[in-house]
Every structure is written in structure tokens, then in C-alpha cells.
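Feature request, filed as a ticket because there's no other form

It would be nice if the structure record came with a short human-readable summary line next to the C-alpha cells. Right now we just get the raw output. Example of a typical job, pasted below so the devs can see what we mean:
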Amino acid sequence: MRSIAFGDFLIGLGILFVLEGILFAASPAWMRRAMKSALATPDNILRIVGIGSAVVGLILIWVVRR
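Raw output as currently delivered:
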């Protein structure tokens, strides 16, 4: 039996794949430029953006679950 939290995780992962797929399908050239830009960005900036994104995501989950 799967837990509710695991089910929510899979739904979130599915939504991530859907959104990413839509972006690649709608504008592959823009996504290619975005990936090249990410490759040129220093590691510390990517790390800060990643941590910030994770924190915002956790806060959003906490607000919705509350």
C-alpha cells in the first residue's frame, strides 16, 4: 500500500514532467538557449537559485497542506 505522501510526490513529479514537456514542445529553441545559459552560469549562482527554488517549493507545499 502506498502512502499518501508518496502519491503526492508522484503527482508532483508528473506535473513537473508535463510542464517541462510543454516548454520543450512549445519552444525548443528557447529551451536550448536557456540550457546554454545555465551551462555558462557559475556554480555558486546555480546553487543559490536551486536552494531558493527548493525553499519556495517547501513553503508552497506547507501553505497548501496547512
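Something like this underneath would help us a lot:
The mean pLDDT is 91.
The chain has three helices and no strands.
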